[in-house]
Amino acid sequence: MHSDPEAIRKSIRSYGIVGGLLLVFTAITVAVNQIHLAVPVAITIALIIATMKGSMVASIFMHLSHEKQWIYGALLLTVVFFIVLLFVPLATVSDTIGTPIGR
Amino acid sequence: MEIPYTVEQRPDTGLANGKLGIWLFLASEVMLFGALFSTYILLRVGAIEWPHGELSVKLGAINTVILICSSVTMVVAWAKLKLNDFAKGRLYVLVTVVLAAVFLVNKYFEYAEHFAKGEGPWHSTFFAIYFTLTGLHGLHIIGGIVVMLYLAGPGAGLWKKNPEQYANRVEYTGLYWHFVDLVWIFLFPVLYLL
After folding, report:
1. In chain B, what are the domain boundaries?
2. For chains A and B, what is the number of CB pairs under 8 angstroms?
3. What radius of gyration, in Å, describes the C-alpha atoms of chain B?
4. The CATH homologous superfamily of the domain defined by B17-193
5. Which one of A19, A78, A89 has the shortest CB-CB distance to B69?
6. How many domains does chain A have?
7. Is pLDDT of B45 > 90?
8. CB–CB contact B30 A78 (8 Å)
9. Do B193 and A82 touch (CB under 8 A)?
10. In whole angstroms, how far apart are CA B87 and each of B38, B41, B92?
11. Residue A61 in domain
12. Could you give the CA distance from residue A94 to residue B136 in angstroms, rounded to a whole number?
């Protein structure tokens, strides 16, 4: 974390730039939506842009680009459990994949 | 009794206790919203058809812009405090509160419109997950407003006694606020656009 006043002043400028970029990416997301692409393509593009925006918020606004090891460790564990969580519902239907609905 | 490591860093973690605490809290929040996103995916994949264009993209986009701006004002508030500019620091916290309130007003109009058309959570699976996700997110916005109002109001007295600790509190609130923004960054395309 910065404590040098000059570094903090530079940070304020970078916060403004990142904020502007986030607004541009939001406009791109909405514009892409107006094109009416195929659903899989639209989902992929929207999620890629959202991930880029999320990364910018986390790394710059939340200062994750220069944090301590303990924070990274806690977040790594969270990511692992989050991925497990995302796939838990699949386990409830994995034995019925390929089975016609309503049989 | 004095609480240790509110400003100085612990020798074992290299962090003040509040910093590690807020990150662990945010980790639990990731799991909470993660569970709901997982539910959304399961419901959507299992649905025979999924409604499209039910929500106002314009209002959703406006709220995205508002939250992004509020994230900028919140991080600038912390930076101003680090530069020993309390007046501007508090002003930026209050601007963040105003932006958060505008977000909620927009949400109110959006909800009111859906309820007027009978599109409550009972209407369909889509509206059930929409109201659950955005309702929980809205509660987080309200929570953020309460904390920020405390920091700008009665909690501001700490600046005179311990400015570093006050700046840390604003930083931790900011981390929470950016997380709330981050959740919306994913909610907007998932619910409004796809």
Report:
1. 17-193
2. 116
3. 19
4. Cytochrome c oxidase, subunit III, four-helix bundle (1.20.120.80)
5. A19
6. 1
7. no
8. yes
9. no
10. 43, 45, 9
11. yes
12. 30
